[in-house]
Amino acid sequence: MIRKLGLVAVALGVVLTGTLAWHLATRQQPTLPIAMVEPPSGEMSAAEIEADRLENLALDRDQETAPLARWSAMARREGDALIIRMAGHDVASFTDSGYCDGFDQCARWRFRGVWHLGGRDYPWLTFFHGEGEEMAFFTDTSGALFGAAGEPSASPDGRLMVLAYNDPDLGGSVSVFEAGPGGLNLVADSDLAGCDAVEWEDAGHLAMTCIDSDTSTGQRYMTAVLFRDEGGWRITPRGELDPATKQLLAKPTRALVGFDLKAVADTPATHQGQKDTVDPYFVEKGYKRL
Fold first, then answer.
1. Mind listing the pLDDT tens digit for each residue in 195-223?
2. 265: Cβ–Cβ under 8 A, 6 or more apart, which residues?
3. What is the rounded average pLDDT for all residues in the chain?
4. In this predicted model, what pLDDT tens digit does every residue of 47-57 receive, in sequence order?
5. Are 231 and 186 in contact (CB under 8 A)?
6. CA 69 to chain centre
7. Radius of gyration over alpha carbons of the chain, in Å?
8. C-alpha angle 169/174/179, rounded to 5°?
């Protein structure tokens, strides 16, 4: 009798176990709330990435506010595009693009003002492509683009424009433009002279500060003057500056060496050399003649 009861209990347990398993398998499982996944510490969210991109794209645009207000008839900004207008119509546009982070993979065009040279107005823009020195550019009524690296400095009579820059690591250059009846012409340049313009002493002499580099003795700063004589344009040193105080030394530490600029005869002052030729590099960087 006891054995029969045991068998019944075992059989009943199997039935109950199977029934419970079936019930658990077929019962609707509760729906759990899905937690929002936050980016790991140190990583940017999609919104932050977009905000950073827009901030990078608008780098230094606040510096355009005053010149755009002053010369509103000649330049305006429409979003990422800078539009230049001359003689009653739009002549060129310059569109920002890419992300600037130390490589040549972006374009930033900024309107800086207008230079009056040789009786004409020339809108002045700067261009930066992510690395190296900022470049200065001008446009004319045809929408042509011309300029060079460096900071512009115009002679008192408005006949000459010099673009010069100096970087102890990258070197430098000096370019001389002359305003003539046909517009600006590039008349001389050098990519060996690393100089900064100081001030015009008169209409033909520009005081400068230059770096003289020597592989054996290192770099030194010099005072110099840019001028043209019967031999052409040259930079002649006047004295050596103390590297710490930038004061003139009584005697230079070694012989002073000047620079002769390469003459460029009757060359239109476009960056690409010809006004009717468009450099594909700057087209890729957002320049378009209209």
1. 999 999 999 999 999 988 665 667 889 99
2. 187
3. 81
4. 888 888 888 88
5. no
6. 22
7. 34
8. 155
Contact between residue 233 and residue 162 where contact means Cβ atoms under 8 Å apart? no
The one-letter amino acid code at 89 reads: H
What is d(CA 270, CA 137) in angstroms, rounded to the nearest whole number? Answer: 9
What's 248's DSSP letter?
B
Count of alpha carbons within 13 angstroms of residue 83, beta-carbon side: 11
Q: What's the first-to-final CA gap in the chain, in angstroms?
A: 109
Q: Which residue, among 163, 194, 192, has the nearest Cα to 176 in the 3D structure? A: 163
For tokens 């107005």, name the residue: 121
Instruction: Describe the chain by its helix, strand, coil percentages, rounded to 5.
Output: 20, 45, 35
The phi and psi torsions of 273 (rounded to 5 degrees) equal 100, -30
Token pair, residue 188, equals: 């001389």
Of 187, 200, 190, the residue nearest 166 (C-alpha)? 190
The CA distances from residue 245 to 28, 46, 198, in Å, are 84, 49, 17
Per the confidence metrics, is the pTM higher than 0.70?
yes
Residue that the structure tokens 């992510």 belong to: 130
Exposed, middle or buried by CB within 10 Å (0-12, 13-18, 19+), for 133? middle
C-alpha 259/C-alpha 236 separation (Å) is: 7
